[in-house]
Amino acid sequence: MADAASRLTALAKDLLGHPLPMRIRAWDGSEAGPPDAPVLVVRHRRALRRLLWRPGELGLARAWVAGELDVDGDLYEALDRLAGLIWERGADAKDAVHAVRDPRFRAAARGLLQLAGPWPPPPPPAEEVRRRSGPLHTKRRDKEAISHHYDVGNDFYELVLGPSMVYSCAYWSKDTTLEQAQADKLDLICRKLALKKGDRLLDVGCGWGSMAIHAAREYGARVVGVTLSTEQAAYARKRIADQGLTDLIEIRVQDYRDVKDGPYDAISSIGMAEHVGAARYREYADELYALLKPGGRLLNHQIARRPEKDEAAYHVDAFIDAYVFPDGELAPVGRTAAALEEAGFEVRDVEAIREHYGLTLRQWVANLEANWAEAQRLTSPGRARVWRLYMAACAVAFERNRIGVNQILAVRTPEDGTSGLPLRPRAWTETTS
Hints:
Number of domains: 2
CATH class of the largest domain: Alpha Beta
Protein name: Cyclopropane-fatty-acyl-phospholipid synthase family protein
GO biological process, one term: methylation
Strand content: 15-25%
Enzyme class: transferase
Shape: elongated
EC number: 2.1.1.-
CATH topology of the largest domain: Rossmann fold
Strand order of the largest sheet: 7-6-5-8-9-11-10
CATH superfamily of the largest domain: Vaccinia Virus protein VP39
GO molecular function, one term: methyltransferase activity
């Protein structure tokens, strides 16, 4: 077992067909690889057994969450270097079969088995969502998925998100703070929706109440916010009471499919539609359309993936599904816009703000790292590691244009065709009178 790092570096090169773009530090203290690269720290041979049992993203994630893998150096640079191995899969099935049949590949696999130590592999970390059964995106299953992600603890989210308690992409300008960038995002949405005093706003997936509070306090809107998270709802209600806004805002623990008290003048859906699922997206669009009055506006703020050459080959990110957003699905922005139009909406504006999410995520990671000991105490060491990896990896994904985020403004245009939008809507300050 002497000089495990050199052996791992050589085996990785044979398995991948090219050198690993990282330096390796192994459990025996040895190091090998490019001297100027971030260091992949393999703390225990168990990490190799996880990778052999679940090659690729899920095996890496399990080893990371368990603390058997770490990075010494710039985490973003490390993820950027590993992106081609983990996410940007260029080889097709024929290439994979050819590699497996290559004698050098098979010899390297045997060497890795010897280095990994005795089987079987360890069980998945406790933070992993266990195998689920039954149809996707039923009300029960959605509630369980939301609870896994959002009922981690409000104190933990305060550490990560900061005072704004907004868990979606901020809207940045030069030299602004996270708090101001989130306030600017909420205000942008209110202006796009043309909110005014007395308007009824439905905030779907209301989180900790930040959008509801901003719309009521700054615009005089009467807001109903719905969430499936009991912890979010309790936190939002307290914030609302503390600000004296209980006469304008109602927070419900309710599925959006159970909201039946329309019509509303406007609907905001900010970072919620990612949970809906491809099979249910038309239902989501139909439900929101039915809840709007004629002339009412929907602002749909949603993460989007890039289209696949073969859409049938699309698969949900294994790490995200197992540890972060169970049952979450991303769709290309064109598919989202098409579903909204099929439901009857007129799509009037699409604003892509991809770069803003990279900036937001980096700030959340900085908040987490600055409060690392407290974050582990409030959740668990494994859960804190999940969040650090998830947010840093997503920052890289936005920066590399693997995923994007868009605000779609859609209108339930009445039969006479009057949308109510100004001729130059991008100013978002003009009145419609």
